[in-house]
Amino acid sequence: MYKLFDFQCLNCGLVFERIIREGEKPACPECYGDTKRLMSASNFNMGVGAYGYYDENLGKYISTNKARRDEMRKQGVTPKGETPKPDGDAWI
């Protein structure tokens, strides 16, 4: 399985991304020197969590994702770039 990793060259300091298999170590694209893998920011959503959270955009405490969708429907809020359905349903 291929994944996207960030690397930094140990010779010239260039930082770059590569899609490689776990454990592979690419050479620097500029000077062909040795590289080290950098820790990347994670890109996953941990969800609501055990106790929920306060949604500043909705102005309410949200305990579940379903509660957030229901509150968005009540307030007529739609996700960015979307428009409400003709029947008034704001969220799928």
Can you give a write-up of this model?
This protein has 92 residues and is of the alpha+beta class. The chain has two domains: 37 residues; 30 residues, no CATH class. Helices cover 12% and strands 27% of the residues. It is built from one helix and five strands. The strands form two sheets. The chain has a three-stranded antiparallel beta sheet, with no helix packed on it. Strands 4-5 form a two-stranded antiparallel sheet. A hairpin with a 5-residue loop joins strand 1 and strand 2. The longest helix has 11 residues. The chain is elongated and about 55 Å long.
Structural domain count: 2
Q: In angstroms, what separates the terminal alpha carbons?
A: 33 Å
Strand content is 25-35%
Task: Round the mean pLDDT to the nearest integer and report it.
Answer: 78
For the sheet with most strands, the description reads:
3 strands, antiparallel
**pLDDT < 50 runs, ≥5 residues:** none
The ordered string of helix (H) and strand (E) elements is EEEEEH
Order of the strands making up the biggest sheet: 2-1-3
Q: What Rg is obtained from the alpha carbons, in whole angstroms? A: 22 Å
Please identify the structural class as seen in this structure. Answer: alpha+beta
Q: Percentage of helical residues?
A: 10-25%
- Put simply, the count of helices is 1
Overall morphology: elongated
User: Can you count the beta strands?
Assistant: 5
